[in-house]
Amino acid sequence: MQIGELAKSTGVSIRSLRYYEQQGLIAADRQENGYRTYNPLMIEKVNTIKFYLSLGFTTEQIASFLHCVMMNKESFCSQIVPIYRQKLAEIEDQIQLLSQIRANLLDRIEAVTDENPNLLECESHVHNDIKSR
Amino acid sequence: MQIGELAKSTGVSIRSLRYYEQQGLIAADRQENGYRTYNPLMIEKVNTIKFYLSLGFTTEQIASFLHCVMMNKESFCSQIVPIYRQKLAEIEDQIQLLSQIRANLLDRIEAVTDENPNLLECESHVHNDIKSR
DNA sequence: ATAAACCCTAACATTAATGTCAGGGTCAAT
DNA sequence: ATTGACCCTGACATTAATGTTAGGGTTTAT
Q1: Which residue on chain B is closest to A114 by alpha carbon?
Q2: What is the largest CA-CA distance in chain A?
Q3: CATH topology of domain A1-57
């Protein structure tokens, strides 16, 4: 299986596959002509990488526990739990922050619409005084 | 008021103040020696910029409505409402996405701890087979 | 032998706000 | 006249994953 086929099978670009290799996430055998060759199992591995990237892990973090999950022994590899928990905490912090921002935005919107229930159009601030009268 | 004082008064770095100027958010008069000079009102303006940056607006977006909010006529400037709403929608999308990630992470953690309630330590995958027995 | 479809490496570009550094003026006090 | 605390511009660095481009080799079919 060459890199193009792996890319198609996983939906990951060739560029990204080479990047994952460079980051130590995957390895490839080489044909005589220098082309990369992959074992069909690599599809699952790349999909696993995709999944953890989607969870917001960096390639470096994924590299630190990928062997664990690929062995189907995630549940035996306790080192992975604190990593999950840490990421979870980060995610929850981000949600918290975004929720605060959301509340601020709702305040702003409310402030505008409450004070001016019948809002007029205004394309430019130059005309504000006229239009708002 | 020189740039250093403005920086101290607002907690915004000199570098950032120059950047805001370059992005058209603020303007400065110049002394004969080329030093920037600011009106004391600039403090409020910079703080307003800080606030909107914290809401996740870009300098470009802020530039498009800053005159509005600085005139204390935010409520008369209807063009600002769709901008707020759009940002709100983005924020809510991000919250949605992060919540999904959060759920996935909780699943992972649950999967590990459920299948292996009495988790052993494992410093390295090399020793997994031994330690997990 | 040429075209099409593969593959390779290396390197630069992207994003946004900010940090940092280099090289250099200005000003006040001593 | 020197020191220290200001200020200036310009430019490169940061982050992380990916896109893109340049320049070039390989293979297969025609």
Answers
A1: B75
A2: 79
A3: Multidrug-efflux Transporter Regulator; Chain: A; Domain 2 (1.10.1660)
